Amino acid sequence: MIFRESFAFKNSISFFNISFYLCKHTNSPSYILQYKYMKKSLLFLAILSGLAAHTYAQVTVTPEFGFLTTKFSAYTTDNGMRNSLNYDWQIGPRGGIAFDIPIGSKGFSVEPGLFYNSKMIRVVDENSMMRSDLKMSMSNAELPINLKYSWSIREYTGKLFVFATPYVSYSFSGRRTGDITVKQPTVSIKQIDDKINFKSGATQELKPLDYGAYVGFGYQFQMGFQLKMTYGVGMSNLSVVPGASLKSSSMFGLSAGFVLGRKIAGRFY
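The structure corresponding to this sequence follows.
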């Protein structure tokens, strides 16, 4: 059988038999019209039930874990002059779960997910009076929606896939750590460890909402294990200072996952 018989489908068949009996043993035009209308409606319901069951059977769930390296870029404006700032790459964890929903039978699918990631910025500043070395870490809940295409390399072995992904994320917490060293007149060191304020208001330090896009590719083995590489760009300005900008301009990620659900040999797993 191509699809599972749903409860609605079974009941619709029984109801169809009763209606057929009534129409067969009565000459009322209203019964005949009702029968024709009912026949079309139940056929449509049966088709929808079959498609829903077939699609549900193909959906897979993939837990993923890996890392995300992020490079932030920024600028400030002083007397009409723009001063650009570039920060070093910083690495943080990324993990979550994705749901692969096939579209047709040509290898296309939509894969929404929910992920956690940690993005970090290291700021080092030094002059004749002082030196500061601070690291800011932001914990984010991320909602990506992969637009995915998959194809088999060789039957019964595995498949390659590529994807493009719009995403939106929200920073629910953040922390600033490090130290500030005062050089003159005497050397003193102050340790820094405090929270980053994302709440709107006079004391807000950064905006919590970010959005952007990823592109990437990966390989899924027949048993369900997969590896995936991504490159992304953040497009939202996180700075709350007028005339300033802070963006996660480049992101690179590597993750491993395992596909749970129905696996079919050949093109789809």
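The radius of gyration is 28 Å.
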